[in-house]
Amino acid sequence: MTALPSMAATQKTTYSLTEASYPVFVNNVAYTDGKLPMLNYQGSTYVPLRSVGDLLGASVAWDDALRRVHITASEDMRPCNNAFCNVSVNGSNGRYIVSGTARVFEAVMNYAVEDGHNYLLEQFHTLAEGAPAWSPFAIELEIPESGQPVNGTLTLELFEYSAKDGSRINVMSIPLETFGP
């Protein structure tokens, strides 16, 4: 499939797109649409916004007056990636309960809290089941007042270590709380 923009007064770029030959899953639902296929351009996947919005429960609207697209997610949408999903945070003032589901190698998920400059803690949590199963988790975090930023954000990183090379993979960053004015 090739997209060729029309030539007007200004020079336009031509892009060669191909139909993606691999599946894309949105919240564990495969995207399929014979009329609006997924496309690939130089290793990047392009999926119709409205179709993905529908799968995510988000509204997608064209604003003709401003000539732009608006995507609005519902309030109850929670972040997901290949290893962590439906993550929510409750708490404040350095005390937080983080819950969700995880699908990690050998049932070991890792997490760290940072203040934008330094890691304040790094630990692991063992789940009831390892990948490919999704397993619920709940972890309690306590950051002493001395470790809380005066002006900044505490951020939680959920991740797992790669069995291949030990690098952090499937990293999900979640703000815990913002401090300051």
UniProtKB/TrEMBL annotation:
Ranges where the Bacterial spore germination immunoglobulin-like domain occurs: 96-167
> Would you say which domain of life the source belongs to?
Bacteria
User: Which species is listed as the source?
Assistant: Paenibacillus agaridevorans
Q: Which SUPFAM superfamilies match?
A: Copper amine oxidase, domain N
Give the lineage: Bacteria, Bacillati, Bacillota, Bacilli, Bacillales
- What sequence ranges are listed for the domain Copper amine oxidase-like N-terminal? 27-76
Q: What's this protein's name?
A: Copper amine oxidase-like N-terminal domain-containing protein
Do you know which InterPro entries this protein is assigned to? Cu_amine_oxidase-like_N (IPR012854), Gmad2_Ig-like_dom (IPR018911), Mao_N_sf (IPR036582)
